[in-house]
Specification:
- Helix 4 runs parallel beside helix 12.
- The protein is an alpha/beta fold and 420 residues long.
- The chain has twelve helices and 16 strands.
- The protein has a single domain, classed as Alkaline Phosphatase, subunit A (3-Layer(aba) Sandwich).
Length: 420
């Protein structure tokens, strides 16, 4: 964990809407004094979708017009946003803890195994193998709780089949096979499908969270969000939303018969984003981040084995991302059931992302490279928290940095200057 002083948010949104270079934080910068809800971002909403590259999602033939056209027109398109790894879970872990991948999280932890830690690196990376980190490894959720802020993970379909997972804090049994790796069809006695995937719920991979009774309060089914959005007081400071395997775009088609992919992901956003944007919490100082875990993978039949497939990815990365101490050198290949996974490098490839906020100039584009560690860094800046893991690596910048900007802002007070 890094204890660097943070950038002031006073210059944040000026820099973010600019399409130029952002500068790293000066180690002597300090947080601004707290301000009222009209001046600060007080609520951050994160929606994570699955497995699409930038050109597919935001290109001219996108199957997600709401995401690719409507939302960027209302906010800021992050043209150079990257995942941090493949295939899924390692990205989600990075988003909330700054921890790099293990061989197990890279392969989605088909066994929900405890992390066997042998040490830590000077930059806060846990050394070892496994999936569920010990309580000494902190997350942004732990940080928020420690300073009196609130958070919730909203997981669509969690608990639909109580024989698979609980409706709150739903996770597999420790050191047992993860039964949520595939979506479950709506068969008797269930009347609805269960398309929840624990590997898309990063909070349940940390003992600091699952060992606490508060996990049942904070990791809940997505249905709870409608109630929580009714007032700013009932809306957590951090809202982390994971759609089910159909609505996040992972499956296509889905066990329900829905199309899945970007079509279903776009429909999900059209349902939920307006509820967020009209909520008191968002309107009084909110930031919505819509991102993807990783870029798209190439899938082809294995010419040497019937019924087998080869999945490959370039593994491109940005932002001087480091591989961490646990995954070895690249290129790499791994077997996962009938699939052979082949990666040229350790990155998560380019995905793009969209930000919306009352404080941002709509219809603008940022070409500055960002990744999941940048997102965590940004959230920690907003709530005046220390940087965890690679969110605090030298040179890491958040979405909001101090530069000279020529983009008009909506708040001439808070965003008029950058205080050193």
């Amino acid at each position: 964990m890094f204890r660097n002083a943070k950038l002031t948010l006073a210059c944040s949104l000026l820099a973010f809407t600019a399409a130029g270079n952002l500068l790293a934080a000066d180690a002597k910068d300090h947080h601004p004094a707290p301000r009222g809800p009209q001046g600060n971002i007080n609520h951050v909403f994160v929606v994570v979708l699955e497995n699409e590259g930038y050109d597919v999602t935001f290109g001219p033939t996108s199957k997600a017009p709401y995401l690719s056209k409507t939302l960027p027109a209302q906010g800021v398109l992050l043209n150079q946003y990257y995942g941090t790894g493949h295939v899924s879970l390692d990205n989600y872990v990075a988003m909330i803890s700054g921890q790099a991948a293990t061989n197990e999280t890279r392969n989605d932890c088909t066994v929900y195994a405890d992390f066997k830690m042998t040490g830590t690196t000077p930059d806060g990376q846990a050394i070892g193998s496994g999936c569920v980190y010990p309580a000494t490894i902190r997350t942004v959720a732990d940080q928020l709780t420690s300073v009196g802020k609130t958070w919730r993970g909203y997981m669509e379909d969690m608990g639909n089949d109580p024989n698979r997972e609980a409706a709150t804090c739903g996770h597999p049994q420790l050191n047992a096979t993860d039964l949520t790796q595939a979506a479950e069809k709506p068969v008797a006695p269930l009347l609805i499908a269960d398309q929840y995937a624990a590997r898309h719920n990063p909070f349940v991979y940390f003992h600091s969270i699952i060992d606490s009774p508060a996990c049942n309060t904070n990791v809940v089914n997505l249905k709870q969000l409608t109630t929580d959005l009714k007032s700013a007081d009932t809306t957590p400071n951090l809202v982390f939303i994971t759609p089910n395997l159909c609505n996040d775009g992972h499956d296509a088609p889905c066990v329900t018969g829905d199309p899945g992919g970007l079509v279903s992901a776009d429909a999900f956003l059209q349902k939920w984003v307006p509820q967020i944007l009209t909520s008191p919490a968002y309107q009084s100082g909110g930031l919505l981040i819509v991102t993807f875990d990783e870029g798209g993978l190439s899938v082809a039949p294995d010419p040497n084995t019937a019924g087998a497939y080869i999945i490959s990815a370039p593994g491109q990365f940005c932002c001087n991302e480091q591989p961490g101490p646990n995954i070895g050198t690249f290129p790499q290949s791994a077997k996962l059931g009938p699939y052979t996974l082949t990666y040229q490098n350790y990155g998560g490839d380019r995905t793009g992302a969209v930000l919306l906020s009352p404080f941002l100039t709509p219809g603008t584009v940022s070409y500055t490279p960002f990744n999941h560690y940048s997102m965590l860094h940004t959230i920690e800046d907003i709530f005046n928290l220390d940087y965890l893991g690679y969110a605090g690596q030298p040179g890491m910048i958040g979405f909001f940095g101090c530069v000279t900007a020529d983009v008009e802002n909506s708040d001439a007070g808070q965003f008029a200057q950058c205080t050193k």
